[in-house]
């Protein structure tokens, strides 16, 4: 590790309410579950904790409610070494929650209720400008208002901070936002939504990639494909990274940990190829464990993992 990475994460903070069952229910079906847990989560907080465990110095910009979950989430972030100066507490508002169902096969369904995350405003991002400007990389996702995402991207671009936009959950994005992004990291569903507006319209991946690249100012795109690995076109380099073969227990936070691993290694000075391999190892370890933040590996574990 040549230098300590400095990462700013602008995004959501949720409490995950997780139910495990032998299989996922279909519409209208009631099944008996096996276990229930409350686990700190949210795409923003997951990425912040993941980067901190990988050795980065991390500043979190987000919002929680003035409730029990909010207090627990702030305490959790602090315990992980994440700077929470810009994690605001919203009076009279509930902390965001995610209702997660996980099957024995490791598949999941997730319903997110944003709560205080939707109270994170562009003005809050302006107050965090220094934290973003001091970072090597800013990670941002889409569980907060789009205007807030746009303000974060604007400030990072002005400050010369690399912008990695993880466009999750899937939604259409304006070209003005895509033009400022240094790297876009959709999964296959998000790629389809960004290009066709439909989550199921996968079609030919390369056709979708070509269509989306035309809208990207920097032209840098990385598609995460689960067990099929990663496809990327970055700085004129094109390639694929195979997924590491592991037994998946729970895929929750796999994408978040991948993005955190990618940002951390790039901020440390690694090449894109090195960073993508590292991020793939991080994600592989994550899916072998249950929960969101409870599944995130340490740097020592990732460095020792060979697949």
Summarize the structure in words.
This protein has eleven helices and 13 strands. With 307 residues, the protein is an alpha/beta fold. A six-stranded parallel beta sheet has the order 5-4-1-8-9-10, with helices on both faces. Strands 3-2-6-7 form a four-stranded mixed beta sheet. It is 35% helix and 24% strand. The longest helix is centred in the last third of the chain and has 15 residues, at 272-286. The protein has one domain (6-304): Ribokinase (UDP-N-acetylmuramoyl-L-alanine:D-glutamate ligase, 3-Layer(aba) Sandwich), CATH 3.40.1190.20. Helix 7 crosses helix 8 (205-213). The chain is globular, with a radius of gyration of 18 Å. It has helices at residues 43-53, 68-79, 122-127, 129-134, 146-159, 175-178, 188-196, 205-213, 254-267, 272-286, 299-304; strands spanning 6-10, 14-20, 35-41, 57-65, 83-90, 96-102, 108-113, 137-140, 162-165, 183-184, 221-224, 230-234, 237-241. Strand 12 and strand 13 (237-241) form a beta hairpin.
Sheet-strand content, in percent, reads 15-25%
- Using the alpha-carbon principal axes, give the shape: globular
- Class based on secondary structure composition and strand pairing: alpha/beta
Number of structural units classed as domains: 1
Main sheet properties: 6 strands, parallel
- CATH top level assignment: Alpha Beta
How would you write the strand order of the largest sheet?
5-4-1-8-9-10
Within CATH, the superfamily carries the name Ribokinase
User: How many β strands by DSSP?
Assistant: 13
Helix content: 25-40%
Radius of gyration: 18 Å
Q: How many H/I helical runs?
A: 11
């Amino acid at each position: 590790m040549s230098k300590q990475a400095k990462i700013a994460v602008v995004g959501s903070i949720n409490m995950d309410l997780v139910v495990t069952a032998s299989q996922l229910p279909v519409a209208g079906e009631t099944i008996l579950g096996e276990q229930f847990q409350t686990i700190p989560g949210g795409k923003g907080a997951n990425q912040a904790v993941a980067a901190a465990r990988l050795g980065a110095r991390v500043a979190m910009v987000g919002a929680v409610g003035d409730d029990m979950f909010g207090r627990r989430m702030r305490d959790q972030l602090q315990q992980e070494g994440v700077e929470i100066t810009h994690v605001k507490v919203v009076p009279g508002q509930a902390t965001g929650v995610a209702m997660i169902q996980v099957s024995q096969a490791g598949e999941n369904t997730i319903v997110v209720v944003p709560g205080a995350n939707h109270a994170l405003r562009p003005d809050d991002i302006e107050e965090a400008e220094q934290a973003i400007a001091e970072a090597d990389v800013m990670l941002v996702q889409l569980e907060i208002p789009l205007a807030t995402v746009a303000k974060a991207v604007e400030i990072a671009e002005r400050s010369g901070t690399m912008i990695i936009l993880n466009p999750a959950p899937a939604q259409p994005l304006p070209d003005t936002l895509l033009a400022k992004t240094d790297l876009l990291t959709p999964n296959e569903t998000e790629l389809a939504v960004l290009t066709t507006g439909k989550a199921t319209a996968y079609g030919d991946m390369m056709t979708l990639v070509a269509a989306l690249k035309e809208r990207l100012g920097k032209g840098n795109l990385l598609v995460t494909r689960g067990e099929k690995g990663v496809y990327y076109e970055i700085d004129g380099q094109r390639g694929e990274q195979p997924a590491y073969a592991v037994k998946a227990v729970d895929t929750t936070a796999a994408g978040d940990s991948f993005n955190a691993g990618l940002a951390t290694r790039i901020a440390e000075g690694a090449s894109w190829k090195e960073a993508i391999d590292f991020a793939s190892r991080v994600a592989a370890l994550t899916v072998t464990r249950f929960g969101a933040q409870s599944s995130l590996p340490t740097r020592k574990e990732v460095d020792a993992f060979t697949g």
